[in-house]
């Protein structure tokens, strides 16, 4: 009989931004086929994660999806949902708000931006007590003066791919010390799970390098780009039927729920969505072809393919909960689609 290490991961009850928590469970078994639903439930102290009171503190972790953990022997990373002792979903359990069957119709691509920060609270590459040259040469850059922390990014890139996460690309972003990776899945719920695991692995890699992966959407004030998590999405009608008229009707209807989306799209997003630095204002809604100053960009790919393709919601912040993003997109999309085809 072999032993396996299972890292149970969950989102805690902190507000306005939940943290990833985890702990390791050793289970002796002959083999593990990757089916997380065969793993046992496990409890934790919810009073230490703002998910319970001290006098009644047990919360339950229910395994939902497992990934290979390439950094440890005989190890897996396990996405869990948090439940109350009475068997009901905990209020912080945003994963369970997604309809699993409907999620299978959606292709999702998250563009996760973040900034590598030193322990001095400044992005890596920023001179002590000052600022580098204005942004411009740093986007997709190469060279020590323009790209900092590449060894960390490459390590994270490789470990995600080995874990089975479909990272489709990485690049240096507009601000020095800022990076992005793209995380894609043809199942919206799996895309969310992949994103949480990829963030966890990012934290673990940066932990070893003694730098901080900062997900605040505006970590450096002033004339510097913020960090977002642009969410690309498509579903069968968009990919197979589409049409310019359909996209315009769909996105017009989609915009009627702008305020509801902003509520689900991350904390401190007002500091980022200002109408400058490649963003639309948080108080406005707009869409346009190849327009990075719009709330929703219609990539040039879509009109070039007879108006069949996908759209990019540019509003989500880098610290947003992917489950909340997708739950809201699924809800609004169903309404917008019906209005567009009627």
Automatic annotation (TrEMBL):
Keywords: ATP-binding, Ligase, Nucleotide-binding. Transmembrane segments: none annotated. It comes from the Bacteria. Residues 89-342 form the GS catalytic domain. It holds the Pfam family Gln-synt_N. SUPFAM superfamilies: Glutamine synthetase, N-terminal domain (SSF54368), Glutamine synthetase/guanido kinase (SSF55931). PROSITE patterns: GLNA_ATP, GS_BETA_GRASP, GS_CATALYTIC. Signal peptide: none annotated. InterPro entries: Gln_synt_N, Gln_synt_N_sf, Gln_synth/guanido_kin_cat_dom, Gln_synth_cat_dom, Gln_synth_gly_rich_site, Glutamine_Synthetase. Residues 4-87 form the GS beta-grasp domain. It catalyses: L-glutamate + NH4(+) + ATP = L-glutamine + ADP + phosphate + H(+). Its EC number is 6.3.1.2. It is an enzyme of class 6 (ligase). Belongs to the glutamine synthetase family. Catalyzes the ATP-dependent biosynthesis of glutamine from glutamate and ammonia. Homooctamer and homotetramer. This is glutamine synthetase. It comes from Urechidicola vernalis.
């Amino acid at each position: 009989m072999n032993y396996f290490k299972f890292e149970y991961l969950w989102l805690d009850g902190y507000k306005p931004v939940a943290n990833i928590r985890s702990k390791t469970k050793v289970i002796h078994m002959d083999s593990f086929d990757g089916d997380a639903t065969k793993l046992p439930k496990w409890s934790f102290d919810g009073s230490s994660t703002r998910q319970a009171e001290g006098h009644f503190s047990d919360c339950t972790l229910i395994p939902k999806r497992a990934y290979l953990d390439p950094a440890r022997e005989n190890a897996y990373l396990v996405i869990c949902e948090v439940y109350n002792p009475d068997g009901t979903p905990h209020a912080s359990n945003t994963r369970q708000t997604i309809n699993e069957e409907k999620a299978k119709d959606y292709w999702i691509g998250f563009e996760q931006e973040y900034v590598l920060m030193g322990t001095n609270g400044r992005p890596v590459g920023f001179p002590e007590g000052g600022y580098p040259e204005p942004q411009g040469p740093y986007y997709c850059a190469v060279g020590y003066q323009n790209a900092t922390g590449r060894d960390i990014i490459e390590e994270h890139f490789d470990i995600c791919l080995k874990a089975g996460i479909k990272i489709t690309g990485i690049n240096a972003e507009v601000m020095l010390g800022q990076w992005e990776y793209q995380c894609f899945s043809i199942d919206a719920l799996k895309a969310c799970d992949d994103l949480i695991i990829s963030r966890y692995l990012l934290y673990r890699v940066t932990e070893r390098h003694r730098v901080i992966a900062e997900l605040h959407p505006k970590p450096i004030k002033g004339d510097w780009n913020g960090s977002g998590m642009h969410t690309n999405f498509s579903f069968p009608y968009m990919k197979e039927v589409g049409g310019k008229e359909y996209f315009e009707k769909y996105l017009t209807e989609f915009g009627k729920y702008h305020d509801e989306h902003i509520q689900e799209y991350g904390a401190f997003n007002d500091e980022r969505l200002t109408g400058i630095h490649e963003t639309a204002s948080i108080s406005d809604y707009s869409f346009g072809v190849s327009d990075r100053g719009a709330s929703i960009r219609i990539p040039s790919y879509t009109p070039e393919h007879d108006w069949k393709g996908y759209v990019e919601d540019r509003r989500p912040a880098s610290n947003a909960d992917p489950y909340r993003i997708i739950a809201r997109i699924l809800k609004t999309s169903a309404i917008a689609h019906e209005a567009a085809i009627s």
